[in-house]
Automatic annotation (TrEMBL):
Annotated keywords: Sigma factor, Transcription, Transcription regulation
Stated name of the protein: RNA polymerase sigma-70 factor
Domain (RNA polymerase sigma-70 region): residue spans on this chain: 27-92
Lineage: Bacteria, Pseudomonadati, Bacteroidota, Cytophagia, Cytophagales
Similarity comment text for this entry: Belongs to the sigma-70 factor family. ECF subfamily.
Organism: Agaribacillus aureus
Pfam families noted in UniProt: Sigma70_r2, Sigma70_r4_2
Length: 182
């Protein structure tokens, strides 16, 4: 019975390796919920778990030519999932440590005018970065971050699939991270 599922996955992985989008979509539909649930069980929030699913399948698509058809696709996915969850957890720990450090060291040195100027500069920079995004990414990013709409609400408003909205939002965030890092 297990060999049947491995063979079925192997066929889809072989097709995916050649760039077949239908095979990719089948594998996504088969495993996305499992990856999401695994992420949630490991204490990620809803949005973070969705990000893990998106990042995971983006990595699969980007590295499709190096997939090994003879190995278990399920095990491969779980290995990548574990890695992504660890990265997100580390990021959260670093953020909490930084906030604790900042609160303890900066509270007595606080300079409201300087803070306001820095905040204004960051706000201006972030607005200019958002303006540089492609139109669809910018629109979806603004609807999500400024209008506080869910992915489903955005999809209904724009009359596109939720998956399309998620992809554009992921790409917008990635573009913004790249721009802000520069």
């Amino acid at each position: 019975m297990t060999d049947l599922f491995v063979n079925r996955d192997a066929k889809q992985v072989a097709k995916l390796k050649k760039g077949n989008e239908k095979a990719f979509n089948k594998l996504f539909r088969k495993y996305a919920k499992k990856i999401y649930n695994t992420s949630r069980k490991l204490n990620l929030g809803h949005e973070e778990a969705e990000e893990v699913v998106q990042e995971l399948f983006l990595k699969i698509w980007q590295n499709r030519t190096s997939l090994d058809v003879s190995r278990s696709f399920n095990a491969y996915l779980l290995t990548i999932t574990k890695s992504l969850i660890i990265k997100k957890s580390r990021k959260r720990v670093y953020q909490m440590a930084y906030e604790k450090y900042a609160i303890s060291h900066l509270s007595d040195i606080s300079n409201q005018t300087e803070d306001y100027i820095i905040f204004s500069d960051l706000q201006t920079l972030s607005k200019s970065c958002v303006e540089k995004l492609p139109n669809q990414q910018k629109q979806i990013y603004m609807m999500k971050m400024h209008d506080n709409l869910s992915m489903e609400e955005i999809a209904k408003t724009l009359k596109v699939s939720k998956r399309t909205v998620e992809n554009h939002f992921y790409r917008a965030c990635k573009n913004l991270r790249t721009q802000l890092a520069e």
